[in-house]
Amino acid sequence: MNEVTFGIAVLLATGLLFAKIAQLIRLPSVSGYILAGLVLGPSFLGLLTMETIGHRLDHFTQIALMLIAFGIGEHIELRRLGSVAKDVGYIAVFQAVATFILVTTCIFVPVLWAGGAEGGMLRDHLVLSLLLGAVAVATAPAATLHVVREFRAKGPVTSTLMAVVAVNDGLAIMIFGLALSASHRLVGQSDSSIMAAVLASFAEIGFSIVIGVATGLLIDFVLHKLHNRGEMLTAGLALLLICGETTRMLNLSPLLAGMMAGFIIINRSERDVRLFRAINAFEPPVYVLFFTLAGVHLDIAALKLAGWIVPVYFVVRIIGKYFGSWIGAQLSGAAPVVRNYMGLALVPQAGVAIGLVIMISSDPQISSWAAVITPVVLAGVVVSELIGPLLVRYTLEKSNEIEGEPERPECGGRSGRACERWLKSPGGISLAPWEGDRLHPAANSSGVVVFGVSHTTTSRSLARIATILAHYYHANPLCVRVLDKFRKGLQTEDELDALFLSEKDETEKLGYTLQTEVIYDTPASGLASATEYNNARAVVLGYPLGKNPLAFQRVLDQVAANVLCPVIVVRFIGALSCKRLLVPFLFPRELEELLPVCEAMATAGHPHITFLHLLPADCSREEIAAGEQQLSQWLEMHLVDTETRIRVEAADSRLETILEAAGQQDLIVMTAARRHRIKRMFFGSLANSVVHNCKKPVFVVYTPEGGLLDG
Question: Are 62-398 and 417-576 the same fold in CATH?
Answer without folding.
Answer: no
